Amino acid sequence: MTRPCAGLVRVTDVASEKRPRLHPSPGVASTVREVSKVAGLRQMGVSERTVQPGDLGSKRHFHTVEEEWVYVLSGEGTARIGPLSIPVRAGHFVGYPPGPRPHCFRATGSVPLVFLEGGERRKDEERGWYVDEGLVWSARGLEPAPGPPPVEEGDASQCVHAGDVALEPFQHQVEGGARRGMRRLSEGTGLTRQVVTWARVEAGDQSTAFHTHTRTDEWVYVLEGRASLRVGDDRCEIGPGDFVAHPAGGPPHAMEPVSRLTYLMGGQRDAQDVVLYPEHGVRLRAGRIEPLDAAG
Questions:
Q1: Among candidates 41, 16, 287, which has minimal Cα distance to 173?
Q2: Domain extent for 190
Q3: Neighbouring-strand partners of residue 136
Q4: Do 215 and 274 share a domain, yes or no?
Q5: 233 shares its domain with 273
Q6: Is there a domain that residue 3 lies in?
């Protein structure tokens, strides 16, 4: 009998919450589903945000420590990056490295703008700015800014469309049946610790070798197609709108498409991370494949 897989959440099953929760501002309104919190990620956050036509999804803000990103699922809008305003539609990805690049999204079409947004969880280190309100936030809460915000920056290269990113073939070095096409969305947008990739796997292939990470979180969001998801000893079928969280140290996992599968996948860069491949008896450490029973 098929059992539910750990970390699997259907996004529409997650309760939506109105934003902003505190200090409302005219014209700023959205609803958010905190998907990764329900699914079990610990080091990253991933949410779905919906913005009604004409509204801003959030106040203009920037982070001083955390990296952030957005992937547009549907609708049309404008992405603010510091002084820049860039039209976006389904398939656009925007990366926000830390620093004075105040950002927000406005829905400009006739239907809601819906996007995934994500980033790091570094609450104890983080400090951010609401630049138009003269406020800063940190682990201590919301406070008046110590002075004017830094001069705004922005670079159009922070925004890319998936269709304009090169499709690269990938063949797994451990599992010969694991092949996929990849568009590395986060590359070149200024992100150095967060990774977001568009991927496509044909029916009959595998997404990757059965594996788990010792230090980094991973996630998958299905855009099109269906697959058999394997997490530990459990299997279940997933399809469009499903989100799967794979926290560091969790059960090994992989997907086998039953039809052409297109999905987003995300993770972290950590030089100390080790990838374990239990069915192959090996691990990937510091770029080298070695036996699982190797010392160290």
A1: 287
A2: 164-291
A3: 129, 143
A4: yes
A5: yes
A6: no
Is 0.85 topped by the overall pTM? yes
The one-letter amino acid code at 139 reads A
Is residue 287 packed enough to be buried (19+ CB in 10 Å), middle (13-18) or exposed (0-12)? exposed
Per-residue pLDDT of the chain (296 residues; tens, 9 = 90+): 345 899 999 999 999 999 998 778 899 999 999 999 999 999 999 999 999 999 999 999 999 999 999 999 999 999 999 999 999 999 999 999 999 999 999 999 999 999 999 999 998 999 999 999 999 999 999 999 999 999 999 999 999 999 999 999 999 999 999 999 999 999 999 999 999 999 999 999 999 999 999 999 999 999 999 999 999 999 999 999 999 999 999 999 999 999 999 999 999 999 999 999 999 999 999 999 999 986 65
**Looking at 147, 162, 177, which one is the last position of a domain?**
162
Q: The tokens of 286 are what?
A: 């510091």
